[in-house]
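User: SIMPL domain-containing protein, Sphingobium vermicomposti:
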Amino acid sequence: MGLDLRDKVLLGCAGLLAGGMVSGGYLLGDGLKRAKAADRSVTVRGLAERDVTADLATWSISYSATGFDLPTVRAEIDNNTKELKAYFAGLGFPVQALAPTGAGVNQYINNGVNTITITQRMLLRTNDIAKAQRAVAQQFDLVRRGVTLQEGSGMRYSFTKLNDVKPPMVAAATKDARAAAEQFARDSGASVGGIKSATQGYFSIDARDGETDGASDTPYKKVRVVTTVDFYLN
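Assistant: Predicted structure for SIMPL domain-containing protein:
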């Protein structure tokens, strides 16, 4: 029994539809496979450390004098300041390396006696780290000169050239992260591709050989950064 034209058209459309469904299903499945492969990744951390030496030293110095009349106390403070300047001049520091940062006067009456205390604060600032270390090592000479430093007076060493070491350290941390990703990939039968995303952690600058005692510092520092990198896996 023959098919009329209308039946032939319907059969042709059905065939095209079935073929399209097969083709579409193949393309969809292939796309899902490729999407799944593209989504494979591993997140690792990379570490970079560098030993550096501080390039700035600052010494906050406080000393005081106590007495019963203002002229006498002020004269003692002035003498202490003179001896302090002589101490640093003797070590080879320029005059401008030492500058006053403030002073305070405290008066109180004890058993009817007026007691006066004057506190002077000075700041030493230098880029000569070796000379700063000598100043700290020989600071007992200040006691011999009659200058007694108050608690909290201590040298602080700073590394100010962080921007100079940032690029190579970030590169080193990323390289370290890729090495960890490649080890993971080998263990899982994959290979490492490009970077999917990356986050740079904070740079930290700490004492190279551990914690200080709080009153003194060290010019020998360790700069550290950790990066988190997400690598594609092939």
